[in-house]
Amino acid sequence: MCEQKLFIRQARINELDSILHNENLCYQFPWSKKMLEDCLLNQHLSLELNIFKHKENESKYVFLVMVFDDKIIGHLIVQKVVDEFHLHNICILPSQQGKRLGQKWMDYLMLLATKLEITQVILEVRESNLTAINLYEKNRFHTIGIRKKYYQQSSLGEAENAVILKWSAR
């Protein structure tokens, strides 16, 4: 994949249908259009200007897209709460997986966290998603707990546990 054609930027509301399409391709239990729209409408910062559009203690979202050849191939949603990020959603089109784009998301997330003086990033991931767990562990996330039956019914026919992972700046 040619580096010059791949970039990350803030998501735009007019891209909602494309983002929803990707979400539906990637997940058995995708986010709804309303959930994605709420995150898009509640972004709190302009990455280009590096300014915050919210009160310091207000919880808002950072919604990013990964673009290649003018096509959105992935998205990432984090919620900023004071000095913490909660990673809610990371998506890469199935046709683009296996190209180290997950690592590109992690590199960008850590760069953004450092720039915004984020002290920790927390996330939940399906217990069965070993590829994602390995990616997070490779990037200094460690397991801090399990949420029992956190996810909707899995392909096995029952609710699935979530592994809670945390990255710390220190």
Descriptive tags:
2 domains; 9 strands; Aminopeptidase; two-stranded antiparallel sheet; globular; 26% helix; 170 residues; 7-stranded mixed β-sheet; 4 helices; alpha+beta
Please characterize this protein's 3D structure.
The chain has 170 residues and is α+β, with helices and mostly antiparallel strands. It has helices at 16-26, 33-41, 101-115, 130-138, and strands spanning 6-10, 45-46, 51-52, 60-68, 71-81, 84-92, 120-126, 142-153, 159-168. It has 2 domains: 3-118, Aminopeptidase, CATH 3.40.630.30; 127-170, no CATH class. 26% of the residues lie in helices and 39% in strands. β6 (84-92), α3 (101-115) and β7 (120-126) form a beta-alpha-beta unit. The longest helix has 15 residues, at 101-115. It is globular and about 40 Å long. Mean pLDDT is 88; it is low at 49-55.
Brief overview, please?
With 170 residues, this protein is of the alpha+beta class. Helices cover 26% and strands 39% of the residues.
Estimate the mean pLDDT confidence. 88
- Tally of discrete structural domains: 2
> Structural class, judged by helices and strands?
alpha+beta
CATH topology assignment of the largest domain = Aminopeptidase
Question: What's the total count of β strands?
Answer: 9
Strand composition percent: 35-45%
Could you say which overall geometry the principal axes of the C-alpha atoms support? Answer: globular
Describe the main β-sheet briefly.
7 strands, mixed
Number of helices in the DSSP assignment: 4
Q: CATH H-level name of the largest domain... which superfamily?
A: Gcn5-related N-acetyltransferase (GNAT)
